[in-house]
């Protein structure tokens, strides 16, 4: 036998056979040598975990005193063209105690207390060992799938760690990302029927998935008061100029907006009223104040900045597409009712709000998302000292709202979401980011996510970006990202005991998002009724309704 392996040796009482030796020890990553003939003979073992022994992505165990040390196989190469000796790199995951009578693994935990010495024997990890490794402890958890390569060991996410440190769900289009997001949120809703979840849905996919367990909001029923915007968000909507003119327009808007807010009765008694205070005001008041300022003799500059602002405000007031936010009906002080509806306070057994922004005019979508995200964060800040109601904010297509510096900078939505990523957990705000382009996310945001759920990523830059955000010990798992099947994911970070590869559960059809791909081979064989279809589509198109 190559390398002078001793005759096959079994681990005491466990029936496991020796498959190799530890050659080199170096912190997290070490080198082992494996007997190729022994690995080949194990491939027909009825235990799928043992049959996979020695493959990339499998686990092996090494005894250190009365403990078993578990390591993940990251890379393999043949030592010599004519030998059966295989050299592999492994990353240590954690350790468990050895049962004195059966030799099995008990009380597994992350981290390593004592490292083994070179020459220590290497054994395959059995399904019984994996059951111990992945068994959810008494902490609150949700089960979302089956651990690869087993058929019955359940993969669990620890809810408090998952939400307390933010999470990201990443995967290329078509890998089952939306269905996986719906699965995780359904399981959270089932375990916490009085929860508080706000989901930004840019494509209207999730309304179908949560119509029974959540409240669905779109442009028809969102009724989001324009006066909830702070000054930055007002400037994004109303200020159209650039360069030096932009600063002049912003200064005029700030002065007139403060005056408009001060006219409201709700502003009485507020000694520190600012342009950012969420105090109702009339758009007509703002327009009239700009008109009055324009007529003053002591104003700086000409009338052009005032006319630009007034024209934009009047244009938005008259545009029916903006009615969900800038309608004259939204001037009443409905802040308490709005927060109650959106944040599910109380939830009445429907813990999730789906905010469908697909019907929102494209030019203000980012501002609407910014207002919703900032409302979540500001509520958390100003409710300190009250009974705590943590809120989870889930952002689908997150790269649109927190783009990297290569794409754009300075939008208020990016500012608030980056702030939530960095500071949200102190105030009880959790962030869930879902994206197909992690490399287009702002630098540093992904590293703020304590748990990363990575599905297949086809783009090399995305794969490299995700790897750079992950702890060293998970790199071996992440190397298999390009080889994942649909609805398979690598999960690592705070939400799991150790990194896992999991095959996600099937969702019932009525709980799935409306994101299935069209079946061209079938749909392009169907004909008939096109005249009526075109008539209905054009009618909806012209009336901007659904």
TrEMBL record:
Residues spanning the signal sequence: none
InterPro entries associated with the record: HerA-like, HerA_central, P-loop_NTPase
Source organism per UniProt: Edaphosphingomonas fennica
Any one Pfam family match given in the protein's UniProt record, by short name: DUF87
SUPFAM superfamilies per record: P-loop containing nucleoside triphosphate hydrolases
This protein's name: DUF87 domain-containing protein
Domain of life: Bacteria
Residue ranges annotated for the Helicase HerA central domain, each copy included: 142-376
